[in-house]
Amino acid sequence: MHTAVLLTLLVVGLVEGKEDSVDLYGALDGTVGIKFLVTVNDTWDENGCIATIVTPMLTSGVKYNQSDAFSVGSCDRGPLRFNVQQLRGQKTSMQVDLTFYSSVIEDASPPTCSLAWNGTYLVPKTMNPGESLLPGCFVMDSREGYHMTYYWFHILEWAFWASLVLSPFCPQQVDLTFYSSVIEDASPPTCSLAWNGTYLVPKTMNPGESLLPGCFVADSREGYHMTYYLFHILEWAFY
């Protein structure tokens, strides 16, 4: 069986994007493991306290258990619980509802927020490397009714541990050729890139790290004038 794949390529800085995140995942049936990027800013501390950590891989639907607590620097400590629900007929297919049982917030409900998620990273809308591709949410809560503490939660990594219906075809390698009008006396620029049907997983916290699968090729005009080409996968659709 042959399956057609339509790719939108980012070529030498040309961004072609659309407003909505790409939805590769058709249905969710089971638990989800997520590593969260958690940032806490405590304003009650006169010396200031702001810290960001990566949680261990947490499992959806697990009940409160104090033994699973983690520290966010010296700013806060507590367990994080979350559930993932499928949203039918929505642009985003899932919603993540999370609660952080903070040791700082003692006289109010624990920080809670929800984020829309389609099972992958966000699609870049600009060429600004500071634009986050991590789905996230923000909430603020008070200590003793007037000292505010601010919380940011972002999805960093994930794993689906039950039956997940993926798009019907995920190629292992993309071979492409650009029939350049510049390269007249040599073979057209050609390169191959490995691809698993989604964006790359961040290896660092550097916002300048590319999450777009890509390849590079250099070719010459008239044997000595070099032209350089970069190709990146930005969006895709399976037919």
Please write out the topology.
Layout (H helix, E strand, L loop, with lengths): L4 E7 L13 E5 L2 E11 L6 E6 L3 E2 L10 E3 L3 E3 L1 E7 L7 E7 L11 E6 L18 E8 L3 E14 L2 E4 L6 E5 L12 E5 L19 E8 L3 E14 L1
Antiparallel strand pairs: 1-17, 2-13, 3-4, 3-5, 3-12, 6-7, 8-9, 9-10, 11-12, 14-15, 16-17
Which key features would you list for this structure?
single chain; 239 residues; mainly beta; 3-stranded antiparallel beta sheet; elongated; disordered N terminus
Structure description:
This protein has 239 residues and is mostly beta strands. It folds into two domains: 5-20 and 168-238, no CATH class; 25-164, no CATH class. 0% of the residues lie in helices and 48% in strands. Strands 3, 4, 5, 11 and 12 form a five-stranded antiparallel β-sheet that branches. It has a three-stranded antiparallel β-sheet with strand order 1-17-16, with no helix packed on it. Strand 11 and strand 12 form a beta hairpin. Mean pLDDT is 76; it is low at 1-5, 10-29 and 162-169.
| Terminal CA distance | 12 Å
Summing up helix and strand content along with how strands pair, one would put the structural category as mainly beta
What form results from the Cα inertia axes?
A: elongated
* Percent of residues in β-strands: over 45%
| Main sheet: strands, sense, barrel | 5 strands, antiparallel
Query: Whole-number radius of gyration?
Result: 22 Å
Return the average pLDDT rounded to an integer: 76
As a percent range, the share of helical residues equals: under 10%
How many domains in all? 2
Secondary-structure element series = EEEEEEEEEEEEEEEEE
Put simply, the count of helices is 0
For this structure, the quaternary state is single chain
Low-confidence stretches: 1-5, 10-29, 162-169
Total beta strand runs: 17
